[in-house]
Description:
Layout: E1 5-8, H1 19-34, H2 41-56, H3 64-76, H4 84-92, H5 106-117, E2 121-124, H6 132-141, E3 151-152, H7 165-175, E4 182-186, H8 189-192, E5 201-205, E6 222-223, H9 225-233
Parallel strand pairs: 1-2, 1-4, 2-3, 4-5, 5-6
Helix pairs in contact: 1-2, 2-3, 5-9
Amino acid sequence: MKKQAVFFDLDGTLLPMDYDLFIKYYFGALAKKMAPHGYEPESLIKAIWTGTKAMQLNDGAVFNTTQFWDKFAELFGEHVRVHEPILDDFYRNEFIAAKQSCGFSPKAKEAVKLVREKRMKCVLATNPIFPMVATDARLRWAGLVPEDFDWITTYDNSRWCKPNPEYYREICGKLDLDPQRCVMVGNDVTEDMAAEKLGMETFLLTDCLLNKDELDITRYTCGGFDELIRWIENL
């Protein structure tokens, strides 16, 4: 059967990245931005991780943004909710500091363009732990724009996170897609290859491979961007 859609991960996939350096620059810039508003760096970073974990454990009852801010307010007090616009401003401005941890591949745009030319839907299936403003920034670092995609997952529009298969099921439901006629492209063995649990075909991009559980990857279709593009051509 003809495929209906290709799902692309962002960080480490369309956007080459040294993840450890990204976290270093990201949190360094964020701590500096939030310090004048009463946030001690160590407590802030710990709270961000705690809020992220809460989103990863979301059971679908609320959107991830609610899950995050409820946890953040639980740690610092309800008054911190007024700081959401400050975080949005951070992602529009100071977040650029994290770009130095990222690479660039023109083949990322080539792969996305090829999907569009083949008249398949194109989904940016990035783990929805960021607001759209942060995802928009990272997309542009990769040479892409939101208009290149039919759907982009953010913490505002998603109720699940990777590697929960419900994350992928939710997207398919929103776009009226059959999971068995969709494919997932990503660099994280645990998070991205979880799509196969719904019957989705997968491609493991190995340029910035993440395999924290040291799983056997020989059973996956995998390779670099050249192999990915040839694979998409044959879908």
